[in-house]
């Protein structure tokens, strides 16, 4: 993985940058010494590290606007950062760029029950939104495993999901409006407290844009009433193929669980050792299926799912008998990533999405790859919507293991596209999948995406080096090719 060659002119402008930043924010909000910058040199994709030119921590929209305009004037690149939990390297700093930390934007601004929404700043944690409204009988549906730490701004940037995204959707389905600041310092508002905005779906474009278009400074999120009843079913199987078949059968029966998660034996053992959730250690695969809604509907659906599981070869089935037991089922799944970190010096977390019907095939082929690369893999993922999160275990101190892990991960993602899926479900492209974009998009597709980047950020100052394998200058993208003196489509009127 290569990042863009540092711009020496930008590095030379560092003294002027620091001077300008200290005129905009208090001096202690500008971090410039090398030791302190070490805290910002990586995000959740810890295989790659790079210290930024400087880090700034604004706390008002006016400060963000002034910082971006200063960087635009000085020719300095900017990498926005929330909590730094990105697993795709989306917040990886640049040696010639400013890291713009949004941690101080951490307030819930308004709770509007009549419109079933809350207005929050981007530094509010995902779980913090639910905690702000739960005593009122509401919650925020998207729940990434990192929800205790990840922030709403980062969730919007990556279009994060979570275990309940099967029924309630990803971030894009649960936000109503955003405020963002462009590289020029201009402040835009998209959407609001209403269901749909007229005109182009610019908010849909911003959600999942990975910090390439603007810096988010406010988000209006949709909040939902707590379900009347919730129950979880813990299903064990003696083969991952059987568990995969069960997933397809449940969805095919027209049942839409609130969540449907799968773990294989390595993940089961790691999670059980870590949180003691009561998972069966003899299982090769485990499904956690949660149903919610009216009590009678939940009871009927639980019985139907259990019956389907038995026909697919489930070796055991446990229904949560209390709220504490339901939460215990989920505790292991939520802690799976840190749990796997206890059994390997390093791991590489992938994020590809496939058609549910190909789940068994893909898991089998991943096991074959594991043997070929000589690296263990633990699988824990959102089975209901086919969003895979294989964790490739390696030791960064062992020569060649990181490179093998990268190659293994690239082959998994290529397989996802090959079977009709996509490169990412919720982690984003970042630097991790950047060089694989050509497996999913052709040159024309990528050029159209780059044109959209140019419309918001024509000088490519915001988060460059992410998403696009090769970022072209905006003038190059708009250039018309003349072949032998003939323009393409000469019959089209031109103005």
UniProtKB/TrEMBL annotation:
<feature type="domain" description="FAD-binding PCMH-type">
    <location>
        <begin position="48"/>
        <end position="226"/>
    </location>
</feature>
<dbReference type="InterPro" id="IPR016171">
    <property type="entry name" value="Vanillyl_alc_oxidase_C-sub2"/>
</dbReference>
<dbReference type="InterPro" id="IPR016166">
    <property type="entry name" value="FAD-bd_PCMH"/>
</dbReference>
<keyword id="KW-0285">Flavoprotein</keyword>
<protein>
    <submittedName>
        <fullName>FAD-linked oxidase C-terminal domain-containing protein</fullName>
    </submittedName>
</protein>
<dbReference type="InterPro" id="IPR036318">
    <property type="entry name" value="FAD-bd_PCMH-like_sf"/>
</dbReference>
<dbReference type="InterPro" id="IPR004113">
    <property type="entry name" value="FAD-bd_oxidored_4_C"/>
</dbReference>
<dbReference type="InterPro" id="IPR016164">
    <property type="entry name" value="FAD-linked_Oxase-like_C"/>
</dbReference>
<dbReference type="InterPro" id="IPR051914">
    <property type="entry name" value="FAD-linked_OxidoTrans_Type4"/>
</dbReference>
<keyword id="KW-0274">FAD</keyword>
<keyword id="KW-0560">Oxidoreductase</keyword>
<dbReference type="InterPro" id="IPR016169">
    <property type="entry name" value="FAD-bd_PCMH_sub2"/>
</dbReference>
<dbReference type="Pfam" id="PF01565">
    <property type="entry name" value="FAD_binding_4"/>
</dbReference>
<dbReference type="InterPro" id="IPR006094">
    <property type="entry name" value="Oxid_FAD_bind_N"/>
</dbReference>
<dbReference type="Pfam" id="PF02913">
    <property type="entry name" value="FAD-oxidase_C"/>
</dbReference>
């Amino acid at each position: 993985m290569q990042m863009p060659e540092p711009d020496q002119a930008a590095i030379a402008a560092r003294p002027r940058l620091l001077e300008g930043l200290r005129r905009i924010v208090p001096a202690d909000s500008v971090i410039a010494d090398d030791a302190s910058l070490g805290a910002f040199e990586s995000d959740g994709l810890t295989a790659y590290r790079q210290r930024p030119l400087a880090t700034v921590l604004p706390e008002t929209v006016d400060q963000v606007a002034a910082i971006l305009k200063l960087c635009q004037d000085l020719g300095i690149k900017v990498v926005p950062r929330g909590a730094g939990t990105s697993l795709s390297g989306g917040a990886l700093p640049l040696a010639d760029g400013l890291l713009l930390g949004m941690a101080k934007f951490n307030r819930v601004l308004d709770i509007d029950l009549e419109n079933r929404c809350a207005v929050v700043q981007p530094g509010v944690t995902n779980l913090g939104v639910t905690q702000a409204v739960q005593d009122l009988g509401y919650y925020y549906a998207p729940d990434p495993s990192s929800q205790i730490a990840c922030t709403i701004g980062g969730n919007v940037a990556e279009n994060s999901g979570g275990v309940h995204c099967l029924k309630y959707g990803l971030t894009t389905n649960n936000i109503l409006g955003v405020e963002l600041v462009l590289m020029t310092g201009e402040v835009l508002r998209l959407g609001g407290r209403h269901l749909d905005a007229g005109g182009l779906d610019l908010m849909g474009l911003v959600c999942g844009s990975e910090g390439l278009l603007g810096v988010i400074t406010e988000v209006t999120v949709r909040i939902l009433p707590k379900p009347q009843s919730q129950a979880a079913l813990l299903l064990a199987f003696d083969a991952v193929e059987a568990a995969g078949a069960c997933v397809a059968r449940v969805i095919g029966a027209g049942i839409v669980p609130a969540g449907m998660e799968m773990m294989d034996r390595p993940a089961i053992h790691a999670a059980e050792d870590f949180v003691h959730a009561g998972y069966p250690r003899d299982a090769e695969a485990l499904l956690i299926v949660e149903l919610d809604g009216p009590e009678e509907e939940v009871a009927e659906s639980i019985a139907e799912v259990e019956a389907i599981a038995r026909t697919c070869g489930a070796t055991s089935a446990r229904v949560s008998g209390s709220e504490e037991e339901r939460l215990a089922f989920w505790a292991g799944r939520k802690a799976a990533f840190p749990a796997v970190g206890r059994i390997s010096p390093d791991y590489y977390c992938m994020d590809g999405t496939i058609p549910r019907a190909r789940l068994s095939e893909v898991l089998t082929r991943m096991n074959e790859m594991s043997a070929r690369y000589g690296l263990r893999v633990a699988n824990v993922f959102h089975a209901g919507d086919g969003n895979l999160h294989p964790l490739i275990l390696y030791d960064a101190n062992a020569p060649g293991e990181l490179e093998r892990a990268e190659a293994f991960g690239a082959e998994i993602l290529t397989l996802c596209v090959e079977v009709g899926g996509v490169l990412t479900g919720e982690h984003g492209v970042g630097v991790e999948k950047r060089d694989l974009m050509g497996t999913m998009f052709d040159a024309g597709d990528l050029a159209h995406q780059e044109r959209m980047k140019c419309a918001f950020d024509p000088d490519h100052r915001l988060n460059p080096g992410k998403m696009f394998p090769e970022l072209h200058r905006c003038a190059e993208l708009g250039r018309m090719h003349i072949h032998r003196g003939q323009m393409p489509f000469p019959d089209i009127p031109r103005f």
